[in-house]
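Q: what does this look like with heme C bound?
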Amino acid sequence: MSCAFSGVRAGLVCVFAVLTCTGLVCTAATPAQAAAAKAKLVATPATADLGNLEAGAKKVVNFTLENQGGAEAKKVACKGSGFAFDKKGLTIAAGGKEAIAATYTAAKAAPAKAKALSGKITCGGAVVTFKGSLQPKAAAAPAAKPAETKPEPKADAKPEGKPAESAGTKAKNAPDKVSLKECQATKPPVAFAHKEHIAENKLACDTCHHTQKGLKAGSDTPVKKCASCHLNPTDKAPSCKEKSAAKNPYHIRCIGCHKEKGDEKAPTKCAGCHKG
Ligand code: HEC
Ligand code: HEC
Ligand code: HEC
Ligand code: HEC
């Protein structure tokens, strides 16, 4: 090993203030250079909304981790209570980015009252704060006798399969009027005249309950709520929290028909449905 500067050589380590060594590389950076060469992790977005979660539901939060510093960030591990991450032990180059999907799994037991969820995800210095709420046990469905109350079915139960008795309100107990508010976040609830709609428009049940083909009025078939699949979809199901007319499943189905009918009593404007 040959030191360009006459430095002291102690074993294989050069000890000197400013060294430039060739052969067995020895470098000593100035404090300013050392600072510039630090890794700096920043998460975008810095906040996440889990929305209203049902017990046991899963929700995916996507964010990007960017290393805005001058050095490679080594073995970045993300942590957040309740979250599982799709990537573990990341190494992010200076200026590099990584897209991260964090899956939150809500507690299995529904609380008696809605419970606020909040906390943070940390990935080596970068922070994503989150909030949301864990929904209480579903309010007894209209017309359901308390004696019939049974544990909620598994979220992945197939509605087309043999209907488990506990899966939902039976078709014969279909509600006359419904206040649609399970997806509510920013807009007033929507009053929906269920019975009138079906009678006046002679609608087949599966026009709306599309996962239950051939559903019949008056039968004992349990009916799944739209929100059970559309509130926190984990598959291709569009979310009922969407604002857009093309993405919200209610907007697609409800406004879709209202436009088609062109009936002035069938609202197509926001306030016609979101009243109050
Ligand atoms: C035909 C009725 C109808 C019309 C018209 C309509 N909506 Fe909705 N919208 C609904 C229903 C039903 C839901 C689901 C409500 C729930 O479960 O909380 C919904 C949900 C939403 C949500 C997500 C839930 C929330 O509270 O944030 C937004 C945002 C929304 N609508 C915005 C709009 C806007 C903006 C317009 C006008 C451009 C509009 N809607 C027009 C029926 C309608
Ligand atoms: C125009 C759309 C539409 C049609 C047609 C329709 N429904 Fe519904 N139904 C809904 C909506 C919206 C709800 C509200 C609750 C939810 O699913 O979130 C609902 C709720 C129900 C419920 C209560 C579910 C629960 O657990 O609270 C039953 C039972 C039901 N419908 C049965 C029927 C039957 C039987 C038919 C055919 C005779 C029918 N529906 C036709 C839209 C429709
Ligand atoms: C068992 C789960 C489940 C239930 C219950 C359910 N949906 Fe869906 N829905 C889905 C899935 C999955 C998709 C996406 C795949 C597809 O198009 O079939 C979807 C798609 C849709 C679409 C988009 C289809 C299109 O034309 O783009 C609309 C609208 C819709 N659902 C409305 C409703 C309404 C209204 C209810 C309640 C009356 C309801 N869904 C109940 C699972 C469900
Ligand atoms: C197949 C067609 C069709 C579908 C699907 C449909 N509607 Fe309607 N809706 C109508 C018609 C037609 C009228 C006007 C009825 C009248 O003449 O009173 C109407 C009227 C309404 C009204 C105003 C009158 C009232 O009942 O207060 C509201 C609100 C409404 N619909 C909400 C909804 C919501 C929410 C959905 C989806 C869950 C929906 N509609 C789905 C056809 C439809």
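Residues 159, 208-211, 224, 226, 228-230, 235-238, 249-250, 252-253 surround heme C (ligand 3) (CB under 6 Å). Residues 2-36 form one domain.
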